[in-house]
Amino acid sequence: MKKVILLSEIIIFLGDIVSAVYGLEEDFYVSGIASRETSDKDLIDWVHPNCIDAQKTAEASMSRLIITSQNVSYTRALQDAEKVLIQVENPYNTIAIVGNEFFVEKPHPGVHESAVLSDSASIGQNASIGANAVIDGCTIGDNCVIAENVIIRKCVTIGDHVTVKAGAILGEAGFNFIDNKKGGLMRFPQLGRVIIGDWVDIGSHTCVDRGAFSDTIIGDNAKINNLCHIAHNVQIGEKTIIAAHVNVSGSTQIGSNVWIGPNATFRGHQTVGDHAFIGSGANVVSDIPSNEVWVGNPARFLRKNEK
Amino acid sequence: MKKVILLSEIIIFLGDIVSAVYGLEEDFYVSGIASRETSDKDLIDWVHPNCIDAQKTAEASMSRLIITSQNVSYTRALQDAEKVLIQVENPYNTIAIVGNEFFVEKPHPGVHESAVLSDSASIGQNASIGANAVIDGCTIGDNCVIAENVIIRKCVTIGDHVTVKAGAILGEAGFNFIDNKKGGLMRFPQLGRVIIGDWVDIGSHTCVDRGAFSDTIIGDNAKINNLCHIAHNVQIGEKTIIAAHVNVSGSTQIGSNVWIGPNATFRGHQTVGDHAFIGSGANVVSDIPSNEVWVGNPARFLRKNEK
Amino acid sequence: MKKVILLSEIIIFLGDIVSAVYGLEEDFYVSGIASRETSDKDLIDWVHPNCIDAQKTAEASMSRLIITSQNVSYTRALQDAEKVLIQVENPYNTIAIVGNEFFVEKPHPGVHESAVLSDSASIGQNASIGANAVIDGCTIGDNCVIAENVIIRKCVTIGDHVTVKAGAILGEAGFNFIDNKKGGLMRFPQLGRVIIGDWVDIGSHTCVDRGAFSDTIIGDNAKINNLCHIAHNVQIGEKTIIAAHVNVSGSTQIGSNVWIGPNATFRGHQTVGDHAFIGSGANVVSDIPSNEVWVGNPARFLRKNEK
Predict the structure, then answer these.
(1) Which among C247, C285, C297 has the least Cβ separation from residue B244?
(2) Are residues A165 and A21 part of one domain?
(3) Backbone angles phi, psi at C76, to 5 degrees
């Protein structure tokens, strides 16, 4: 069953964000958010603030409700088509807020009956723990979402508002073998912790290994996508964004506000400065200063990161 | 216990595919299919149609039963060795059919008792749902095999004859964060669907994210290997083959009959034409026309794809 | 609760490894191993044999107990600070042995109640099988650790002292599709085995596919990190080390004592000689002789591997 929301609810929720409303004669229901491919009169449409032909785009919309910035006027064409126009400062941000509030399904707090939860785990308020999750004696903050099949070992501490997507594995021993002097190899002891800040996202099947003797650290608001490997003793700064399949080998230190493209590799023991930008598929084998864009294999300086 | 099959059963099953049978005096059992490394008289041997010395290869076989094309004759040597020779047009295809019919173990239809199945899931005939699978209110067609630990969210629609291997995750929110204007980042709402055609294979631990507002689409007969990431709003055409570790970032559109080598990366928003061939480890940062071979980092045109 | 160990226990355990002990007036407890970041008087500190200023490093330590080679003397400074100095031939190796013996938590032998175990599985002594593991009728040796969510198919044989980390999948059908002559594709039958030697480590979410007709083989003491893909009919030699995200495509043969860097790719059907070294992010599309270092995309010879 499709979820429907009254327009008036949305306007009340947005409050001060709304600069102006045009054409609202009677309340009606909307059932989602439109895209170029899925347009429909019941879906909320919106015009990106950078759209080069905003007025025309708005007038071509199939939707009854359109959210735009003030670069779209309530013209006769919109009027005749009985559209409702809501003007806001930033339609992109507004549509995100509306989508998250009204249409994104929230996980229910609680622990699924199939989860394996240690008595010594410390779990904050409003946590949601999914099916088949294995939660050892770790510490998890408030408002966290731990999805299905996630494994969290004892050595892990997680802040508030953290999402760990399905199948992620946090706190395993790092990959560090030495000669055992008997013809074989033995794992070097891995005794450190994993410390994860607030508002962090960890992607599906991503692995974050514990440090050897000191810790693996992920800063507040860092966002890590699916199938990444974050090795022992790695440090990742605040608001750093890591795309899928990224491999951060041991003891690499990555600053804050760094952007790392899909399938980039760090050989290990590199340092990456704040606001660096690492291209997709980059193979990083040297240190990268702040505010630089590096790409290629091996990764090389391309240009300053002006952003 | 090894499975054994009577030769007569195989001949009956093959029917018209068999051009000629030589040396069959009495029925006997076979127990599998030979390879260069595992030869044995009870295993069915076969000679690839492109083999440069087919006759000699057949005569050197340890097996009692040999399947070849008509470029192998039932010589005195084969006769004296009491071999049975079956001639077919395409031994490669024939051995595949025989292997799949008689020796590959089929999953049993049914839902494993440990699976977590939503009441609102719509599941077709003869589906097999493995242990610890989590199936939300999605739609799954007939004759599908959903292996262990697979997670399928509500927004997913799957056709008939689809195999989803263990640990695959279908329908998660895409990786798309924007400034939340409070010093942090928020996920842009992800409300689209995942639409998967018929005869699709999804590899182990592969992640297919839902679209943001429109859909992520995988065409009929597409085959995707292990540990791939198929991001939000990606489209993949029919009969496209994607090797392991491939990263297809958001909104990339890939045509039909494309071959994508292991560990190739798409930066996002690229278009790839039909019958393109992308080499292993390619880092695709631009559009690729139809019928072209591209390789390298960044990926560059190598030659026309004559195949 | 932190684990504490009496120093005398450690000295007794080390036995002959200890060359000399200085400053031991009375027994005391230690609670772990120090690192540059986590120093504390109760942690055992140690000086790497290659440290360029070993004496000074030892004297600057916060720890009460320091393990060094004989290049550190029990100076007046150490004496005045009431330090205990243990001299050994190889402090790096010694600290590994001490860490593994006294501080690394060992898995408990036994099968978790949520594991799905086939009656026909043959499992050796002292095995530990984690939560939600799915163990089909395979063979597993003595002293193996099979972590949570691991899937092991019937066609797999595992030696002794093997660790399979969480989410690894062993023995799935390989990725091998051929034209089905009806407009689609069919999987070529995959009937071979996976043979894993002794003392092997398989990383989290790593997939090891079975061979088509012959076998996929992993030699003794091979160590494979997280999120790797080992395809059908691959052979990996003894003591070969494979970092995370490595993709070894079908029928590749890798020798012994090879080191493969993170996110390296093998296109398939390559041969790699013993003691080769493959750099991070290398895209291997040709054979690599023994004792050579190859890097880049495509991977090229860089230099002899002198190590």
Answers:
(1) C247
(2) no
(3) -55, -40
Q: Compute the average pLDDT of residues B84-95.
A: 96
Looking at C51, C79, C103, the residue that finishes a domain is C103
For residue C4, give the DSSP letter.
Answer: -
Strand pairing category for B84-88 and B18-22: antiparallel
**Partner-chain contact A32 B191, CB within 8 Å:** yes
- Cβ–Cβ below 8 Å for A215 and C95: no
Which tokens sit at B162?
Answer: 């689809």
CATH code, A171: 2.160.10.10
Residues A278 and A196: their CA atoms lie apart, in Å, by: 22
The verdict on B99 and B245 lying in the same domain is: no
The domain that contains C45 carries what CATH number?
3.40.1390.20
pLDDT of residue A307: 64
Q: Which residues of B are catalytic?
A: 232
Residue B103: strand, helix, or coil: helix
Q: What is the number of residues in chain B? A: 307
Query: Rounded to whole angstroms, how far apart are CA atoms C18 and A221?
Result: 48
What is the value of ipTM here, to two decimals?
A: 0.96
How far is Cα B255 from Cα B285, in angstroms, rounded to an integer? 16
Contacting partners of chain B (3+ CB pairs under 8 A): A, C
Instruction: Tell whether A67 and A158 lie within a shared domain.
Output: no
Structure confidence by residue, pLDDT tens digits, B160-212: 999 999 999 999 999 999 999 899 999 999 999 999 999 999 999 999 999 99
Contact of A243 with chain B, judged by CB distance below 8 Å, is answered with yes
Residues A80 and A131 in one domain: no
Q: Which residue of A has its CA nearest to C297?
A: A297
CB atoms within 10 A of CB B140: 23
pLDDT digits (tens, 9 = 90+) for C137-162: 999 999 999 999 999 999 999 999 99
pLDDT digit string, tens, across residues C194-212 = 999 999 999 999 999 999 9
Interface list for A 128-167 with B (CB within 8 A): 130-132, 148-149, 165-167
Domain boundary residue among C87, C103, C119?
C103
**Interfacial B residues in 195-234 facing C (CB < 8 Å):** 199, 201, 203-205, 220-221, 223, 225-227
Question: Could you tell me which chain B residue has the CA closest to the CA of C285?
Answer: B280
Q: Are both A154 and A250 inside the same structural domain?
A: yes
Q: What is the dihedral of CA B19, B21, B27, B28, to 10 degrees?
A: -90
Query: What domain range includes position A95?
Result: 5-103
* Set of chain B residues whose Cβ sits within 8 Å of the Cβ of A114: 114, 116, 132
My answer on whether B175 and B63 are in the same domain is no
Tell whether B175 lies on the interface with A, counting CB pairs under 8 A.
yes
Structural domain count of chain A: 2
Q: Do A184 and C239 touch (CB under 8 A)?
A: yes
Q: How far is CA A161 from the centre of its chain?
A: 12
Residues on chain C touching A231 (C-beta within 8 angstroms): 244
Query: Which pTM was predicted?
Result: 0.96
Same domain, C250 and C203: yes
d(CA B15, CA B88): 11
CA distance B78 to B66: 10
Please give, rounded to a whole number of angstroms, the shortest distance from the CA of A265 to a CA of chain C. Answer: 7
Q: Within this chain, do residues B77 and B177 fall inside the same structural domain, yes or no? A: no
Kindly state whether C2 is in contact with chain A, defined as any CB-CB distance less than 8 angstroms: no
- Active-site amino acid positions of C: 232
* pLDDT score, position A2: 64
